Amino acid sequence: MSLKINYKIHSLIARKTLYKNIEDLDKVTEQLSSGKKLRAPKDDAAAFKVSQNLQLSIHNSEYLVSNIEVSKDFMAVAESGLSSVNDNLTRIRALCLRGANSFYNDTQISTIASEISQRLEEIDRMAESVSFRNMPLLNGSCSDLKFQIGTGSTPFENTLNVGSAFIDVHTSALGLDTTIFDEGSYGSPDDFSAYLEKIDNAVSLINTGISKMGTYEFSLNDKQNFLSETMDTFSSYRSGLIDTDVAYASSELAKQQIMENITVALWQQANQIPSTAMQLLR
After folding, report:
1. Beta-carbon neighbour count of residue 242 at 10 Å?
2. 101 vs 106: CA distance, rounded Å
């Protein structure tokens, strides 16, 4: 190797390498301290754009999951109300079967009719009182209720119309005459027997509503599971793009620290070359 006094190429190369090592060391130190290897477009423009799109998709899915949770609460309250109405109808039917027997006296028939009348009133009360967030659910006002379950605007793909499950449970809507069991109005055992068919029709309507509730709840659960799996996949992919691989970064840190020490030593040695050449001239 030739020795030149005024030519510092070795020093310049060592200094350039040192600056590059310091820059790399700062970068890996920043990645370890922040936990992020991708924080701005300058780090990797393409990967940054992908990560932003993934984040948007994750946020949208989170909002939809929240929508679905509220929708399921709607369904749960309404289904509970329908079940209670069904319980009352079941009890009324049992009372009608009892009243259809001709061996009860007037006092006993009056007691049976009174309980039937009270339970019919309770059904009408529930039609007005069962609500969610101040929204009545069983008075027929939810016949066009829709839940947003997708991120788009196309109704068929992004909304679930559950209105058909939210039936009107007023006794009049169920085809039940409430005056027949008023005090002094009930008649023969045949009147109780004839009322059984009306009760059966009402029970059928309620069971249809409950069945539809179950179908819609299954759809909501299925959509929620899909969104949760999608969020997990996107989050994992995004994490791979932006999060620091601690094991790799730690090894890089050690490597860059070693390289920095070596480069500093080489730079110092390169700066001594002109002095060495001068000593040879003595």
Report:
1. 20
2. 12
